[in-house]
Amino acid sequence: METTKINSWNEWDTLKHVIVGRADGTMVQAPEPGVVRDWPEDGFPKGTYGPLPEEMVHIANEQLDNLVRILEGRGIRVDRPEVLDFSQSVSTPDWTHESMFGCMPPRDVLITLGNEVLEATMSYRSRWFEYLCYRPLLQRYFHEDPDMRWEAAPKPRLTEASYRPGFWDEFEHMTYEQRLERGKRFDLLLTEEEPLFDAADIMRFGKDLFVQPSMVTNRSGIKWLRKHLPNHRVHEFIFEDDYPLHIDATWIPLRPGLVLHCGKRKADPELVKFFHLNDWEIVEAVTPRRTNGPLPPLCFCSEWLAINLLSIDEKTICLEASEEAQAEQLSGLGFEIIPVPFWDVAPFGGGLHCATVDLYREGTMQDYFPRRYGRF
User: Fold this and answer.
1) 373 occurs within a structural domain
2) Exposed, middle or buried by CB within 10 Å (0-12, 13-18, 19+), for 300?
3) In CATH, what number is assigned to the domain containing residue 229?
4) Cα distances (Å, whole numbers) of residue 241 to 28, 170, 188, 247, 248
5) What's the CA gap between 130 and 109, in Å, rounded?
6) Is residue 372 in some structural domain?
7) Residue 164 zone, left/alpha/beta (φ > 0; ψ -120 to 50; rest)
8) Which candidate, 359, 256, 263, places its Cα nearest to that of 17?
9) Is residue 3 part of a domain?
């Protein structure tokens, strides 16, 4: 039996154990208050749903399996989730929904905070039961590591009260500028009825956690995290974004003292001053330039998936193989780049960071921000 130890405080310490997702059975979700898909050119006009084409699933799984081989070749232990029948309808006493989603992006559902693995609430009904894909693994870790803490945030009810009525109809008819203004006011999809957050809206910097309110994370969710994690400092901030969704294609720590930022999404000026005060360099990511064209069909990700990368250690980064401009920039910053073909995984829930959850990185909790500034 392999020795299991849960320990991960940041995004860059040397990686030893990770979960990698699977593409099998992934669905275009049925319409729900949290999300509406509309891809008529790819066979899924608004109101329709169903499994992604088998050919797409096969190619995505080949790329996921290749990532596993790369990681294992570097001595990293890799575990995989259990695939469910995501085409089934699901229900609680409050609602019934016609489909689930999938288990490619475990980063949305789980986050490791030291020796704790925390299950996020999730804010889509189609993803309410997604935690079940990871329960066999978590049960195993719980029994094998005597120091592991296994926690789950309160499962939300996700009634109509958790969503702003008429949001999507309004959103569809807004200009880009109007959406930006709405985002600045945090007038987004979710109400504050109950705590809601996706784990992928949290970025770990040792003692400090930076959390983005978004289409899937509300301020009640951030408040819950603060109460649950008294030994961390939990910071809330907003980027200028017309559709904020997950922080890991916007604000990416590469090593102590260095952050990669998607400059298209302007950062809170106080956040920038806070990082500079603590001797962190903020580098604006180059405009994506890749060798394999536009995003794949049925993909809900942005072009800034280019910076959704996985750090192996402070000097080594796994990066989508076609991202030429990003590879050049990161190489210029002194990193070894491991090119990983991963573009066809994007429609299943994201990039290399989305597809993984690190469970064990060498290292301990460190305070990288000893100086305070403003509200941070």
Assistant:
1) no
2) middle
3) 3.75.10.10
4) 24, 17, 11, 11, 14
5) 8
6) no
7) beta
8) 359
9) no
Residue 4 in any domain: the answer is no
4/149 Cα distance (integer angstroms): 13
| pLDDT at residue 1, as a whole number | 55
**Active site residue: 103, 133, 262, 354, which one?**
354
The distance from CA 244 to its chain's CA centroid, rounded to whole angstroms, is 12
Q: Which domain holds residue 41?
A: 15-361
246 annotated active-site? yes
Q: Mark whether 276 is an active-site residue.
A: no
Return the biggest CA–CA distance within the chain: 56
Check if the beta carbon of residue 309 is closer than 8 Å to that of residue 352.
yes
Give the β-pairing of 251-255 and 233-236: unpaired
Q: Which of 17, 97, 246, 261 is catalytic?
A: 246
Per-residue buried b or exposed e for 223-258, using 16+ beta carbons within 10 Å of the residue's own CB: ebbeebbeebbbbbbbbebbebbbbbbbbbbbbeeb
| 170 CB-contact burial (10 Å; exposed 0-12 / middle 13-18 / buried 19+) | middle
Other beta carbons within 10 Å of 347: 25
Task: Say whether 38 sits in a helix, a strand or coil.
Answer: coil
Please check whether residue 107 is in contact with residue 357, taking contact to mean a CB–CB distance below 8 angstroms.
Answer: yes
Asked if 144 and 109 count as a contact pair (C-beta separation under 8 A), the reply is no
Weakly modelled stretches of the chain, pLDDT under 70: 1
Sign of torsion over alpha carbons 200, 203, 206, 209: negative
Instruction: Please give the pLDDT value at position 294.
Output: 82
Active-site residue, from 145, 198, 241, 358: 198
The answer to whether 241 is a known catalytic residue is no
Residue tagged 């210029």 (tokens): 332
- Contacts of residue 340, defined as CB under 8 A and 6 or more positions apart, other chains included, come to 63, 66, 67, 70, 318, 319, 320, 321, 352
